[in-house]
Amino acid sequence: MGGGYLADYDAGLAAGVATLAAALEARSSGRGQHVDASRLDAIAALQRMDIMIRRNKDEGTDYRQGARIGGLVPCKDGHVVMTVVEDHQFRYLAEAMGNPGWSKDPRTAD
Known about the structure:
The chain is an alpha+beta fold and 110 residues long. It is 45% helix and 13% strand. The chain is built from four helices and two strands; from the N terminus they run H-H-H-E-E-H. A two-stranded antiparallel sheet has the order 1-2. Helix 1 crosses helix 2.
């Protein structure tokens, strides 16, 4: 089980990506940058799928019931978090795994 609060991870991810972007811009332009990451925005972003479903009145689709590959997965040296929800993500994951036979099975095509 992953420790901590998911919004903290997302806020840290947003801050990290923004910091990398600011560092790249500072390196190329020579000007300092300001990074502002909001934990509240991270919490709100966690609800984006629910908000999208309600906003578009897509009541026929229950994304919570879909088959998703990933989550917190044990590894040889600890754990990794993977989320594979979209077709292109699945294709890239299968490719990274050496395209195992099960990845070409029609039952896993979508």
